[in-house]
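Q: Entry one of two.
A:
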Amino acid sequence: MNREEAVTRAQELVARMSVEEKISQLRYNAPAIDRLGIPAYNWWNEALHGVARAGQATSFPQAIGIAATFDRELVRDIAETIAEEGRAKYNAYSEYGDRDIYKGLTFWSPNINIFRDPRWGRGQETYGEDPYLSGALGCEFVRGLQGDGEYMKAAACAKHFAVHSGPEAVRHSFDAKASKKDMAETYLAAFEMLVKDADVEAVMGAYNRVNGEPACGSPALMSILRGKWGFKGHFVSDCWAIRDFHEHHHVTETAEESAALAMNTGCDLNCGDTFLHLLDAYRAGMIKEERLTEACVRLFTTRFLLGLFDETEYDGIPYSVVESPEHLALSEKCARESMVLLKNNGLLPLDRKKIRTIGVIGPNANSRAALVGNYHGTATEYITPLDGIISFLRDEPVRVLYSEGCDIMDDRIEKLAFENDRLAEARIVADESDAVILVVGLNETLEGEEGDTGNSYASGDKADLLLPPPQRGLMRELAAAGKPVVLCLIAGSAIDLSFAEENFDAVIGMWYPGARGGKALAELLFGDYSPSGKLDVTFYRNDSALPDFEDYSMDGRTYRYLRGEPLYPFGYGLTYGDVEVTGAKLSEDGSAVEAEWRENGKAPTEDVIEVYVRAEDSPFATPNPRLCGFARVKAGKGAGGSARIPLDPAAFTVVNDDGERVSGGSRYTLYVGTSQPDERSFRLTGRRPFEFEITR
């Protein structure tokens, strides 16, 4: 069904409603209208990395890990899987008349806010710090979720519009102030791509104000979204964000005024309860019925596009597809591609024939909570790193020893014990082992959304980039043991890993790898596959050089504007192989880079070829070259090949101080390789990207 037909049907249906009935449909938990044959519908569902919060579902790596794959096709496959499981669950629930929250087909995903500051707890939900990567992968997620059938398979939602990336503690009252250049170049770029290129069905507003206007009631933002970009779908508030208008932002005085401001500005759907005051606002003359009708038509247009009043090709999707073998295999594939090898002095891959005892140590080594991040569903099987290693070595004459080592946050595990009550055990395990796998990090109780975590001291954000004190003590103890150590970090953000870089033999970034992440880790450790993930955020040496958390200027932030040297740069990640780009040129039509590459005989591997661009004669260019293209390649040992890498259509433009995208001038340098063209990446990899200049 095309949008024009859906709009016509929506208009005909809404025309039969009273004002009271129209208003009733503008909140997330829309009631049934029996006389019109309209069933109840709950708009609120989540699917950042699998259908969330409604029981069984395939558990994929958290979004920050999905993005570390730099794999467009994989992201689309994951979204298609989520849509299929969402349909299967919706079909089954509908048979039982269950129309509760988290059981509909309107998924409030993806989160394409820019991960501008590593302290932000919700950064794990995003696709990292780069606008182009976020937009490109976000578009694939939307296309996969919404599908290309006669009806929309599920509806995607780009959130949170806009300029939102912490701090969580003040998000309900915070005014994010950003320049016109930063708005267009960084904070709005991915949203524009999802609206224009992927026809995302919904956009969700943010809690904060943006340059003085509340994001869910901002004429400036709405003029960009609907006016400049031509967005046709529906706009939904973040949950209880409209209540913030009068309670925290103080741009209105009453709930009626807040409801009217949001509605009149263009917010169609309220996640929250402030739209319960719409009728009073309407009776007081604050809102015209035409605007209520418009909002209602937009919402029913989405429901018609989903085929919720028709028979569709999706009605026969059975519940048995949920966590099917194919879907679980896709989750494992994503976990394998997402893990980033940050350091390897030659220890990895481990030789199982030479190891007789392996120690698995750390608070995240056997933690289910550490696998899944936030906004997750429920898996029927969780494979922790300990589980994965035990299973992998089951047929080998290798003994596996385990110690939790310390609590993830507290100073002891047994409440009646002394401090550091597992530290001696960890040292004993290390002393008995030929090699140690140390698994540290965070989980959703230490980083996440305000109100949803146990991290009350920072409202879900991190106070700094350090691991909690007990884990730092455990790291020092194991460094002193003198045994080969592989540090595995399970976290959704950049952590200060300077101690690990200096003291351990290998370092692996696992993100939150999904319910089966431990299996993927074991296969990586023992060389069943080569790691190939790339960092989608900068790992800073520490937080001393970070700008103030509440400063939304991009100056000094992310790899594009970074001053100084990172510990691990954006785009960095080692493999067991050695892929080298030997040549590259711009395609004849200028839309792609054609690259030649070879694997220099170390090991079969996958890798990501990255393209960065620098505008050489524009004062508005970013200080450092920026990502403008990427593609995965598969390389056999000693093999070579070619790759056509599509370029960002905006690659040869810049954003001026007025927020206008203009030509970047006549001279550009393109860098094509498996990392950024920065000095730190060169020292870590021993290889520079292939470089060439073009004039336009």
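Q: Entry two of two.
A:
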Amino acid sequence: MSLPIEDYALIGDTQTAALVSTRGSIDWLCLPRFDSGACFAALLGDEDNGCWTMAPAGPHRTTRRSYRGNTLILETEFTTDDGCVRVVDFMPLRNEHPDLVRRVEGVRGRVRMRSRLTVRFDYGDVIPWLRRDGRRLCLAAGPDIVLVDADVDFDCAAPSRPLAEFDVAEGDTVDFHLACLRPREPEPEPVDVDRLLSATERWWREWADPCRYQGPHRDAVVRSLITLKALTYEPSGGIVAAPTTSLPEQIGGVRNWDYRYCWIRDATLSLLSLLKAGYEDEAKAWREWLVRAVAGDPAQMRLMYGIEGERRLEEVELDWLAGYDGSRPVRVGNHAASQWQLDVYGELMDALHQARSEGIPPDDAAWQVQRTLMDFLESGWREPDNGIWEMRGPPRHFTHSKVMAWTAADRAVKAVERFGQDGPADRWRRLRREIADDVLTRGYDAERGAFTQSYGSQLLDASLLMIPYVGFLPATDERMRGTVAAIERELCTDGFVLRYSMGEDSEEVDGLPTGEGAFLPCSFWLADNYVQQGRVEEGRALFERLLGVRNDVGLLAEEYDPRAGRLLGNFPQALSHLAVVDTAFNLQAADGPLRSRAESGDGGGAG
């Protein structure tokens, strides 16, 4: 069986990331970018698909791990009958090429260690050719080259699985360094690990320290912000939804997707969380990425892009991988990139509105993009779409999508009224009113006393908990109270919220077999609604319960199975961590008036 998802921790260099297990094995690493082929893919298969183990050679009694302060430097301590060792894993901020460092420190006694290096390129399919030069190993196949320097010798009798065994006594340090090279690139000199470690620690501490949040959950907020930063592709400013692909939403199921891309929605919400916490540089970089990515015909706007704004993300299945815990197929690429989602227009307009509200200087190119999108949206909002959850069934008039179209019109009006942008505000006000009337008439079921997933549907959808966020209606409106109550009755499992109603009717909507875990961001959204309804203690209790399902190093996946008590879905998930930040800030503000994202003193809600 695969290790539980919560047994993994993240390290990264803001261009790619690795997952390290509690057993000291790196089971996932894509080089040189988040969306590159994996050279360690045991996470989705087995050891023969690539991993790098580093652990005591014999049995050990306990394992304890943590991040070094507010950094992405992971420390794992193994205690054996003979002593204790610490494995320090980190990826230095990139200079010329990707680096990964593993340092073994003797803490107490004397421990025999074993490290096995199994490199497999192209997601575990290609066995590289091995060349040895002293204590340097070069593993290469086609365009892929990995160098490994070590303070100890590797036994290469099995060239596809080099093995090192060595003793570490108290006070000893043994270093390993992996570098990824391009073809024909000169091999680098051995690195100074002490210098890299010091620089990496300093960089992360300096990045984390300015966080504006000073409430009781600061550790959780800072860890979530560090995770969001780690999921940002530094050269472009794009933010990936997660660094993994195909971690299942149901063990053994088919809901296994590639999340190593930039969803407009997830990136926008991540940006808002970073802005709240005071990280304006990330906001500026994201805006530049956004303008480049969506430039062109607004009818061709994608719901997701590659990390440099790529549009073609063809989905293929990797049949040589057994899948996490037998969950197949394993997919790379994402067919949903070709879908049309109306809600992303609202999220984009909202993000740029928030950037202006936080004092980010206006950008003429960004406003021209917004003007062009609004021209399209004036008629495009009437079309059915695939919805926030990327439904693979026929397009529908999803209520959340229409609310986000209203949000786009609302933010366009505010851009003129509050920030002096040039645009037809009167026309956009009429559009805003027209969409609001449509949603309140067709998206609300008066008999149920709740908003429904789509026009004419009886199904519920937790995305409707976002209605107060964007200012369409206050959380205290009776229609929202009724919607929250319906979600509590029908979508909550032991306090955790499912994304939408599942059954025979839902299979027609999403085109997939039923079954998945509770969606953690939706659970945080419910806590936010409690806070905005004045049910602050209920919101705080749910928030703290959700924090309780983080793993031992403070990370969350996309979903959670409350019955099995385990995380599900891609990991760590940006949407879950930005929800931690949002709810913490909302609770901090609970003693004063809690403003929606739309609030500007001039109304504009749907009424």
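A: Comment on entry two: The mean pLDDT is 93. The two ends are 53 Å apart (CA to CA).
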